[in-house]
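Lab manual, section 2.4: Encoding a predicted structure.

Procedure: take the sequence of the chain (70 residues), apply the prediction step described in section 2.3, and record the output as structure tokens. A sample record is shown.
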Amino acid sequence: MCEKINDRLNGRLNGSGCTDITAYEAMKAVRREERRKLIAELKALANRHGYRIVSTIRLKDMDGDTPNDE
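Recorded output:
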């Protein structure tokens, strides 16, 4: 039950079902930094191959997605 509630509130609840904004904000910052590093790597890869990225890069977390989900 807690896992379903946790999913609905995007990770704002701890394992006991209580709101834990500090942990949520910390995890959000970690995910943001991971995305920034990934985008920097994608830009560097494009540059090495003679391309540059000219529009927004949208990333979607694949946790729980099916392999063919777009």
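Check your result against the sample. The first helix runs from residue 2 to 8.
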